[in-house]
Amino acid sequence: MNNKILTLQEIMVNENIHATIIPTDDYHLSEYVCDYFKGRAYLSGFTGSAGVLLVLQNEALLWTDGRYFIQAEKQLYSNVKLMRMGDDKVPSLDEYLLSKLNRNEMVAVDGRVFNFDYITKLKEKLSKASILFNSTCDLVSRVWDNRPKLPCGKAFLLDEPFSGKKSSDKLKEIRKQMQMYHANIHIVTQLDDIAWILNVRANDLPYSPVLISYLVITLDKVILFVDKNKLGDLLLEEDFKENNVLIKPYNAIYDYCDSLKKEDIVLIDTKRVNYTICHKVIEKANLIDKTNYSFLAKAIKNPTEIENTKIAHINDGIAFTKFMHYIKNNVNKHTITELDASNYITKERKMQDGFIDLSFNPIVAYNANAAMMHYSANENSNAVLKDEGLLLVDSGGHYLYGSTDITRTIALGPVSDDMKLHYTTVLKSLINLSQAIFLKGCSGQNLDILARGPIWKLLIDYKCGTGHGIGHILNVHEGPNGFRYKIVPERNDSAPFEEGMITTNEPGIYLEGQYGIRLENELLCVFKSQNEYGVFLGFETITIAPFDKDLIDVELLTKDEINWINDYHARVYNTLKDSLTAKEASWLETYTKAL
């Protein structure tokens, strides 16, 4: 049992607070947050990247999605109940909250860690039930002893040879959008948007090379709210001077919002800005709610970003191939654990040209652990690899050239017929989607069945999307593109595909208590043809790494699928062979030999 929940509940009782909601988010609604913002994990025990904790005076509950059910069951403290989102008999957090509270009881939250839309809708529901609401209550800080400090890394300029576009040009395009909506101020708080607009990168968040800051763009200047101690790069200073970027203290954004005038017209994407900022703007000025120009613009990679990303994938493929060779040839010679394997692939990535950081914490999962889609090995769960069964490895890196995300499932020794059936089916699914040709206007909702189809034929499904957009040295999960057969509004990944978008393709099969299989490549959306029927688009596979032939049942493949694998493996070998040792290159030649 977690006494911190009990301490929080004592404060709530003493101050007549009947409920509080603690999400995963920081003040910028980031996917990955620094330690300072991990209050939900601190109070509940659950460390997954998605979940919301509801604390009432006499109980605590955590809502999370299907990717994390198994992990949450293992990690949650005994006084926190798991609520399985998506299950028919599980109410939403809002429904549960309303069923538990009475008239004139109080819900208190910190409005800085929720988006405007959610809190606005919640307030409306509570108001109809005559339930009180306070959005200025930071209860987490009051129960978190020795709370970590905000990070203080150094920022640097990602100049034009790597970004492909000057920040001055991006600002011009943003100001055109502002003028279209007659706005004189644009507030941006999403850290990847800020990084893209200013061509700035840092290391403030784990696995996301961004700078904790807020950005205000006016028609003649830019204000960056940031800890100035992070700004020491001379190229960055010169770029800021050229673009009239003024520096103000990080938390001064709230005073700035309070200083707005009633004639100001402020452009804000309320889905992606915290409630406190939006509320202050509404109180003082006029708010125009539109999607940030940067949201879509950064998802459509420019030619420099595309070519550099292909270089990043070659470097990443070298690292992964060296890792795969090592695991295959050493698992039966000495003890290797999941954490050992994770450290080994990280070491190989760090040796590659232009490496900055991992793009997420590697998922290295052996046998039953791989059934947890977002498993993360720790000292308690750390399985010893044996020369049998399956190892799932989902990992990636940020390089000066671009970002990567790759998954391979590897046979460590003898495998069952079912393992081969499931692996080959997942591979068929990946190939199906890779070969898609479609009319412009299609989204991932239209195409997802190409990946799920072969798996659905086995009457199996996976509880997540098939793929997500990839940021350029930014967030490894980036909207608005993705593959998902049904729209999940909060994911914001159902936009039509555009040339230049990069999206992962990662179908899988997960059998609880047995094993998990996932294969993942990145796909670049490319132009195919234009005729009387319209513009046709397709995909180019840019991930460069071998599949495990020891798991492929050739009898289950069509001739077309065999040709696709053979062509892909030939490209992998020819691209990587000269960057490997003679022993590694010889091994890769064997593993990429035509089926």
Give the key terms.
6-stranded mixed β-sheet; 19 helices; 595 residues; 4-stranded mixed β-sheet; globular; Creatine Amidinohydrolase, Chain A, domain 1
Shape: globular
Unreliable stretches (pLDDT < 50, length at least 5) are none
CATH architecture of the largest domain: Alpha-Beta Complex
Structural class: alpha+beta
Question: Would you report the number of β strands?
Answer: 28
| CATH class wording of the largest domain | Alpha Beta
Count of runs of 4 or more consecutive helical residues: 19
Q: Strand order within the widest sheet?
A: 12-11-10-8-13-14
**What distance separates the N and C termini?**
55 Å
Oligomer: single chain
CATH homologous superfamily heading of the largest domain: Creatinase/methionine aminopeptidase superfamily
> Nearest-angstrom radius of gyration?
25 Å
Number of domains: 3
Q: In percent, how helical is the residue content?
A: 25-40%
Overall pLDDT level:
96
**Largest sheet, described in full?**
6 strands, mixed
At CATH level 3, the topology of the largest domain is Creatine Amidinohydrolase
